[in-house]
Amino acid sequence: MLKIGPYSFNSRLLLGTGKFPDFDTQKAAVEASQTEILTFAVRRMNIFEPNQPNFLEKIDVKKYTLLPNTAGAKTAEEAVRIAKLAKASGLCDMIKVEVIGCDKTLLPDPIETLKASEMLLEEGFIVLPYTSDDVLLAKRLEDLGCHAIMPGASPIGTGLGIVNPLNIHYIIEQSNVPVIVDAGIGVPSDAAKAMELGADGVLLNTAVSGANDPVKMAEAMKYAVLAGHGGFEAGRIPKKLHANASSPLEGMSLL
Amino acid sequence: MNMIVNGREVTLPENVVTVRDLLDHFQLNKELAIVELNQSILDKATRDNKKLTNGDRVEIVQFVGGG
């Protein structure tokens, strides 16, 4: 079970809802992933184009826990405002703190992320900050009282996988709250690797929504997360520099 | 009545008096809409009859796809 604040989940795969080719594909991908947590962004309604279809109308909202993000915010204050708007939907009290500090790399601003997390914890939110893979920052976020830490594998949408597995390992090792590897996942082996390192979950979006077959990729990611987590729980063998036969050496006199 | 809705200056007919009227006027999905009036977020349960006044600044937002 993945436990975040007061909530428990069977699935350790969190799925973003951006950039799918169409709602039918998206709905099928969400179902294939068997995720229980869906992320959303908060944006202005287009008042001059009424009744635009919205993905929330296509799914049974009660079946999922919604995790809105504060994407678009560049300061802690903006993030808090978006978080409060999201909470006013009456649909959720979890928030993914996302304060981007650089338009080119979309890397999170560590200072503003820390500030926003602190402010939102004071407001009673369940706070999941998207952060870089900085080990000490992850510690500071946990010390504040964040309910999970979400270090990026690599920059958003790059699909580069885990560029610094050692830092992710350190973050997992030190954390007493769930660590969810968020952003940069490209292929199922990236998700499996994150889970093998001991992550409590993986959050991805573009890897599925941008795949040639998003539904098939969603299912593959489900298995990757399960496989990686199973491997972590089972405990891997130590790496060795020399071969060690797996077939018995006795009874070879037949040769 | 004139007000700024989602950053755009709009002129509203006289029958638009409350937040509910405003959402109806623009044919917006009331289930999805989250409304902020003059930088103060309105409680979904009680916002419908909230009166609007000339010069108000209104933000109407919703959840959209995002990662």
Automatic annotation (TrEMBL), chain A:
Query: Domain of life of the organism in this record?
Result: Bacteria
Localization, UniProt: Cytoplasm
Q: Where does the Thiazole synthase ThiG domain start and stop, copy by copy?
A: 4-248
The cross-references to Gene3D superfamilies, in alphabetical order and at most eight, read:
Aldolase class I
- Catalytic class of the enzyme: transferase
GO molecular function per UniProt: thiazole synthase activity
Pathway this chain belongs to:
Cofactor biosynthesis; thiamine diphosphate biosynthesis
Could you name the active-site residues?
A: K96 (schiff-base intermediate with dxp)
Stated family: Belongs to the ThiG family.
* Official protein name in the record: Thiazole synthase
- The record lists the organism as Domibacillus iocasae
From TrEMBL, chain B:
Q: Which NCBIfam families match?
A: thiS
**Protein name per UniProt:** Thiamine biosynthesis protein ThiS
- Coiled-coil annotated residue ranges, if any: none
Q: Which Pfam families match?
A: ThiS
Stored SUPFAM superfamilies: MoaD/ThiS
Instruction: Show the Gene3D superfamilies listed in the entry.
Output: 3.10.20.30
Alphabetized InterPro entries for the sequence: Beta-grasp_dom_sf, Mopterin_synth/thiamin_S_b, Thi_S, ThiS/MoaD-like
What PANTHER family is this protein classified in?
Answer: SULFUR CARRIER PROTEIN THIS
Q: What is the lineage of its organism?
A: Bacteria, Bacillati, Bacillota, Bacilli, Bacillales
> Per the UniProt entry, what species is this protein from, by scientific name?
Domibacillus iocasae
